[in-house]
Design a protein that fits this description.
single chain, 821 residues, mainly alpha, two-stranded parallel sheet, disordered N terminus, mechanosensitive monoatomic ion channel activity
Length: 821
Amino acid sequence: TPGGWTSNLTSWGKRERVQEEKKRERERERETGGEGEFSFGSHFFPSISSSSSDDDEESMSEGEMAALKEEVEEKKKLIATLRNKPWRMQRRLIQLKEAQEFVEKFEGALGKGKGRKWYAYKVMMTKKLIKFKRDFENFKTACIPWERKIKEVESHFGSSVASYFIFLRWMYGLNLVLFGFMFGLVVLPEILMGLPYGSLPRKTVPREEQATAMDYAVLFDFNGYCKYSFLFYGFYNSDRMIGVLKFRLPLSYLLVGVGIFGYSLMVVIRTMARNANEGGDGAEEGQFTFSWKMFTSWDYLIGNPETADNKYASITTSFKESIVDEQENQKDENIHLRRFLRVLANFLILCSLGGSGFLIYFVVKRSQDFAERDNDELSWFEKNEVEFVMSLLGLVCPPLFETIAELEDYHPRIALKWQLGRIFALFLGNLYTFLFALFDEVTAKLEKEKSIKNETIWALNAYYANYSSFYNTTDVPPPDVHPADVIRGPCWETGVGIEFVKLIVSDMQVTYLTILIGDFVRAVIVRFLNYCWCWDLEAGFPSYGEFDISGNVLGLIFNQGMIWMGAFYAPGLVGLNVLRLLTSMYYQCWAVMSCNVPHERVFKASRSNNFYMGLLLLVLFLSLLPVVYTIMTLPPSFDCGPFSGQEKMYDVVMETIENDLPSFIGNIFTYATNPGLIMPAVLLMVLAIYYLNAVSKGYQQANLDLKRKMQMARDEEKNRRNNKDSTNQVMKDLEALLPNKSLIPPPTEEDELESSKSPKIKPGAVANGKGVNLQKEVSLAASNPRGPVTRAPGPRGGNARGPQPGPEKGRGRSSNPPLKL
């Protein structure tokens, strides 16, 4: 009743005034400092004077000291947990200020007297340790490369664009570690302990190439002195041990080449596992859709008004899409026409993919014909035709796929996945077509190498025979031939490495020119010609460019795939890629901040991290196949590289086991490589993967069941508080089986009063502390206060309905006055 509520409000106001008076009294007592008494909690202690005293031990008793220490610890705990309190911000600030003042004022008193200086010392060291940890965390954050630059991009363009630069920084760190392995274990030992330039034919420019070995056009094609340098495979010596340290360079080259893949695989899988643990929005798909969108859609790192407007429009669009999704599913359309258009679109895209693959195969075959001709007869385009065509396909095909995809009329999210998959298939098909054509060239070079090797052996045998017959001696010295005049093979490994390096460099050039012309020049035209043009250039065509996140990430992934494949044939390629990523970070950050505008729809980046990592893992696996095929199948060149003189590249491992390790290790390795042992091991791993997959599915099902039970428990608790019927379908079915529901006695007013005075029970728990058994304890919910219907309804009218039957009054109709707070 109004009177009851008025009395409640009056008593509540009195209580608040009493609390305010007590608070002011405590503040006055604390402000007096050393005069009078200070109080905290329910304890009162004599004042602590600031003047010096001869005996500090008599200032407070042991009980007072213990109580003071306990109160200080409680204030510290309050400061630490204040963020989790369900209070208003004003109350939090007041409590925080009071707690900090109390701790600073009375914590020093605990350091006075015998045995208390140790406590004061511990408090001081704890504060210093906390400050050191905070400063060290700030130092670690400051040491993260390009953190401020990425945060600036994130504040203007949201976390979606910043995810590309975070991924670029991650790739830079990975390549920096790979460069450390390659440079420290392969390049540096060869430079420091190997033979110098000009000592061997593999380290010397041929005589016929020395005249043009330093020309810019030759060096730009990575021929001349670049070809016979430490950048490529052919430069490295094949001696088992080099230098004073007896460093095994061929073994190190092979182990580093394979270890790069192992380390990259470990890092990628570990990153995917960490993203999987950190990811997820905490709810199942389709549950609380609008609540999650309402409270978690905003990107609080946005600091640009234009980006904020775009994000606002994006959230609004997502709400509209969620509302319209069901209507779209029920919309009548010509499904046969839609299927025909989608089949047509996929057919056109497959034709584009096939055409791009055939074009690459054609130009690679044509480049093999150009390689047999003189370089002076070739133009610049003919020399760089392969790299130019592959880069051009990477620029033209993705927009073409996007145009063809308009025929399919997919949902934008599904269309984005199809677009990414098609671009992935384009890059992958182009890369493997390039490899197949390249290995055809390798096969031709191997045939040529065999003929050169046979001619060399025949010439040496003829020299030995002629020398021994002319001088009549068997002690024949080696032929005195300058390394530049020695006949040498084509060294197919160096040729493959040169193709990969040229491909990386051309891709970098095309990317930078595209940003400069497609973004910068376009932005300049829109910015300065908009005032004197016929239409609004900013709102219409051409407008400012948007940062293509998916295209840039996919380009970065396939660039890394080429690095993984080419690093075995060109050890200097990893260092070249480190420089490329370093310049890309600064160049693209400048371009995105000065030339691009935020996307119309700003997506959160957390949902796509593992998708990109999954693509990177797939590219890593596909990059491993050509290298393994080279190591296990193809014979190495006979006159260049660390494996020259071996039948297969992996023979250096067997040679090391036989010559440098004990015999039992060789036996163990022989048994381990036995197919009879490998097949059961593979079968065991497959069974283990199947078992772990089954266990994982069982855990997922258990999580779903627990979520369902928690939801049921919350519903039961909510209905218990609201005094409604149970929502548990099992209990509803059991109640429906009762013979006569009217026999259930309604609760009396005394029962309701006792239930209102009973202590509150947490959701999902009972009074005895045990968990809720949903099949047995759902009867905790109160019954419906409405009584059973015992008569037919009367005619409609003013007082025809009358009071409801049953002794209870219903909700809000109790005759008892409300309880005073």
